[in-house]
């Protein structure tokens, strides 16, 4: 990548990309009064609308789960983007040309904007859908019919047909004003001696972003004379299509995955369709690649968790050797992920699409609900290779299985697995424990050689290659998260008082005014200092305010709240900042200067009262005879404080 995006451009993106527009692409917002809007939170499962957006401040916050931030943060969270990716996408949307800081990486010529590539895909998808009704597409319709999909199903999933004519899409999109370069970059068009359509004579599934935008296609072979042998072809990597991130069906499954904290990973486009039609609305598939870290990251976001993975990820493997290998490989990977991973295998090896055809929707739902924990599936596979009726068979089975169990990094799981292993083999649990301990010792002596062997044996490349789009899409590389089970090691933080405690109500309300009405507050808040905030989190928010030029700076700058957020590193303070930026102020009318002055004076009055109490206490402990100078100084201070408190009170009352 080229150098860092310039700060001015990021600021401009924040200013021009309206947060309510962006959020509305994902959440239905309605007016909540006071310039605020609300809807159902996309980040957690809820029935009441706790998710607030304040367009004028460019902020969102959920009072249910605490997620909050500006338009860039929103896009990062909802679509799993990096900061730079989110800024780039918003820049394209708002027509801002991003400039980069001079970096050590030379910047190549800029390719077509994302918006152009998306538009080309939108038009291509429309074009292909239209083609599905032509006489030429008979084989495509027959294929769909043979897999149990009618016209409605095809329409729901936007299935289309790429004609056999080699450049019909190219001509169509050229007519719509796209340049050959744009079309080649998009991946829709190939270029040899001339330009040609990438997909010819194939049945097509549009692959969509979570937001519903088409970014690529998956294409199934239909004709025996197709010169490309592969049964499935996918869009090549492009600026908008990254196969390591893409999950087919996510646009349809997103809500249900969030609601149920469950995701089902199937192996192909027709399986996704079959699952959804059968009522398993959480099904997605990888496209032409194994399930990896990035896919796990994407899912984790939609499963509505904040930090660690919650919920279930269910893989539908073939029960065959490839599926078992994929499962075993996953087992050697990340343990947090593994403990939440399940496997749904149909005994006769049917995939969800076949199953729906032969046995109906109910059978598909049963397949998923009959899921098995991954570790049990893996251990089961190991044990089937031995004759457990023979003593030597049991010994060998125990030795191999114990090696697997001991490789589980989450030690809290090891005991449960060991007991289960013992009962599966039919031996005493103590015998199994001893063998697991020996296996662990062997692994330690061998420098983790057992795990290395496992990883080597089950490299993804060792599988036969690409027939179904997600061929071998086991949770192969589902690693790269935190190593398992070390959560309890963190030292306990000192308890923080409840932010909603009435003691801090005035501090909270003042900060809301500061963040939401900086212009009205600017003058009144001149005397406010960090000492006026007794809650450490509120004090932290005020410090960020002060460091960003105070409310006066905010009055003149729409991006101020975002800059404040950048100054805060404490996650709690960050969440509080976005909450304060959107929570309705407790004023029946639009807060004016008089209201704000009254408010700020009350806050200062409280500070004065606290100091009065402090000084009085010290006075009582000081002898006027022994220390007359200090006593008099404190007495003067007390008088001054009392005077200040009166002034503030009169100001607060008189306006
Ligand atoms: Zn929420």
UniProtKB/TrEMBL annotation:
Iron listed as a keyword: no
Chain residue ranges for the region called Disordered: 436-500
Pfam families, sorted: DnaB_bind (PF10410), DnaG_DnaB_bind (PF08278), DNAG_N (PF08275), Toprim_4 (PF13662), Zn_ribbon_DnaG (PF01807)
Keywords, in A-Z order: DNA replication, DNA-binding, DNA-directed RNA polymerase, Magnesium, Metal-binding, Nucleotidyltransferase, Primosome, Transcription, Transferase, Zinc, Zinc-finger
Required cofactor(s): Zn(2+)
Top EC class of this enzyme: transferase
Zinc finger (CHC2-type): 41-65
Catalyzed reaction equations: ssDNA + n NTP = ssDNA/pppN(pN)n-1 hybrid + (n-1) diphosphate
Cofactor stoichiometry and binding remark: Binds 1 zinc ion per monomer.
UniProt EC number: 2.7.7.101
Quaternary structure and partners: Monomer. Interacts with DnaB.
PANTHER family, per the entry: DNA PRIMASE
Entry protein name: DNA primase
Gene that specifies this protein: dnaG
